[in-house]
Design a protein that fits this description.
Mean pLDDT: 90
Strand content: over 45%
Structural class: mainly beta
Shape: elongated
Radius of gyration: 23 Å
Distance between the termini: 50 Å
CATH architecture: Beta Barrel
CATH class: Mainly Beta
Number of helices: 1
Number of strands: 12
Number of domains: 1
Helix content: under 10%
Oligomer: single chain
Largest sheet: 12 strands, antiparallel
Low-confidence stretches: 1-21
Order of helices and strands: HEEEEEEEEEEEE
């Protein structure tokens, strides 16, 4: 009888079973993880220098679709792009994804901050690499390689800006994250009837990511 009573007590115990450990790769929505898992959707926005930006991300099996819009307020230029991230390598905490996108850039040609800036409507292919490392269940470290190339369609000129960077993304809750990244590199610009001019390139961005799923 005692054994039967013990079994009944254990069966009626309302204490929930321990939750399974969180997957650190599942956190993030702005820059991390490097590629979203299948079925995930996220939006992000950043403020910084020299541009404002926002984007949409959707994960599939081995790739991610992304679309972005950017406003460079020193050039007074706008860019829209669409592309993919391809999941190339992963382990328990690290994801690495090459990126490929295509877009268009409209530049006003304002020279208040850049004496070489020129008015143009440009095709803008972009290649790069994103790596994310889960430092904890709520913190992701990201590394970026970014190579956008604006090729003017209405005049003879281009702008090539390869940069490398790093940052962190911190989860405030399962849906919302804060992100901060910095980038540095070189900006090579060739205006119409001019020669290619290299100069330092940099960017600092802070913002939020919102993960729907």
């Amino acid at each position: 009888m005692l054994a039967l009573a013990l079994l009944v007590t254990l069966a009626a115990d309302p204490t929930p079973a321990p939750a399974p450990p969180a997957n650190p790769q599942a956190t993030g929505g702005a820059f991390a993880p490097a590629a979203l898992p299948a079925g995930s959707i996220a939006f992000w926005g950043t403020l910084g220098a020299p541009e404002l930006a926002g984007g949409y991300r959707q994960g599939f099996s081995l790739l991610e679709f992304e679309a972005t819009a950017r406003f460079h307020y020193l050039e007074v230029s706008g860019t829209v792009e669409a592309g993919v991230r391809l999941l190339a390598w992963k382990n328990e905490r690290t994801l690495i994804a090459p990126t490929f996108s295509m877009g268009f850039k409209a530049n006003s040609g304002v020279r208040a901050f850049d004496p070489y800036n020129f008015a143009a409507f440009a095709l803008r292919p972009r290649v790069g690499l994103v790596a994310s490392v889960a430092a904890s269940e709520v913190l992701q470290v990201v590394a970026l390689v970014d190579v956008p190339w604006a090729i003017a369609l209405n005049v003879t000129g281009f702008q090539l800006t390869p940069t490398v960077g790093a940052g962190v993304e911190f989860m405030l809750n399962p849906k919302l994250s804060l992100v901060g990244v910095g980038q540095i590199g070189v900006d090579v610009i060739k205006e119409p009837l001019g020669v290619a001019v290299p100069r330092p390139a940099w960017a600092v961005r802070v913002g939020i990511g919102y993960r729907l799923f």
